[in-house]
Recover the amino acids of this structure.
């Protein structure tokens, strides 16, 4: 299977590309920066329809991860988030339709907004309230509409908050680890009770592979680990590994409130469930940071 991974030079894209390569598929990476991985690297821009069409032309599957994935950048520059996350996804839809490719889209659990019931399943209303999750849902719906109206094979994975080796330095994991390693205090924004169903990148990569290899189409699937870890618990685990002071500050605007999300449908439809325990994934990330900085 010939697979194009958009955003393949980024943290999650690298894990996904590696997983597809190890499964024996022919992988190409599409990103604004050249990739240093062993796969074909295509430099281009999602908002340039010609770049996208050329990259997708001979592919069987497009794993569409490329996006403005930084919540705070999306909040500061909503026009940029709209251009990349919405127009870019529309360009992917057109190119995939022209080339006969299936699309597996990286959506997010944050499309649901404030929970009306928990655990939130795929039938929960979507009511996003931030430029990041608004534009991610818009990209998902553009692709789903192409499936409904024009026959595009499409699966959307509503991902949990991903973590693992290679995580970007401005993530909460890296901020806590880097501060603690330097002997500086870790500051939790708010009381730290807010939790996330952190999902290891290798588990997410496996979900993309299962979706790409399946005949399933026209569905959105929550792809998220079952267990919730609070930010305070994460900080305490980091302090156990690198002793330092733990402090508290004002809540940060734009933080998504906690919610419990169900991945039961992904288990039923794809046979997927998260397998990497949180602390094992954290230890892997710590080893990666110590080894590579």
């Amino acid at each position: 299977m010939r697979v194009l991974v958009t955003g393949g030079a980024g943290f999650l894209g690298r894990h996904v590309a590696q997983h597809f390569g190890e499964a024996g598929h022919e992988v190409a990476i599409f990103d604004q920066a050249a990739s240093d991985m062993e796969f074909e690297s295509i430099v281009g821009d999602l908002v340039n329809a010609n770049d996208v069409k050329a990259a997708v032309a001979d592919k069987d599957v497009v794993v569409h991860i490329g996006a403005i994935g930084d919540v705070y950048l999306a909040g500061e520059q909503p026009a940029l988030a709209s251009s990349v996350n919405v127009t870019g996804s529309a360009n992917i839809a057109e190119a995939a339709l022209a080339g006969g490719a299936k699309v597996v889209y990286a959506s997010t659990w944050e499309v649901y907004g404030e929970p009306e019931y928990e655990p939130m399943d795929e039938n929960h209303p979507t009511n996003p309230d931030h430029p990041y999750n608004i534009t991610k849902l818009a990209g998902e719906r553009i692709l789903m509409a192409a499936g409904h109206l024009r026959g595009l094979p499409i699966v959307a994975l509503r991902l949990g908050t991903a973590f693992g080796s290679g995580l970007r330095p401005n993530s909460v994991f890296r901020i806590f680890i880097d501060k603690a390693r330097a002997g500086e205090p870790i500051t939790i924004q708010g009381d730290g009770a807010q939790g996330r169903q952190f999902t290891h990148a290798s588990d997410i990569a496996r979900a993309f592979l299962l979706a790409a290899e399946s005949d399933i189409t026209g569905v959105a699937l929550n792809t998220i680990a079952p267990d919730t870890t609070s930010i305070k618990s994460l900080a305490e685990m980091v302090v156990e590994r690198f002793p330092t002071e733990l402090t508290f500050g004002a809540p940060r605007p734009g933080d998504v409130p906690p919610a419990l999300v169900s991945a039961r449908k992904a288990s039923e439809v794809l046979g997927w469930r998260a397998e990497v325990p949180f602390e094992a994934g954290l230890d892997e990330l710590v080893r990666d940071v110590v080894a590579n900085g």
Remarks:
- The longest strand covers residues 102-108.
- The chain is about 40% helix and 20% strand.
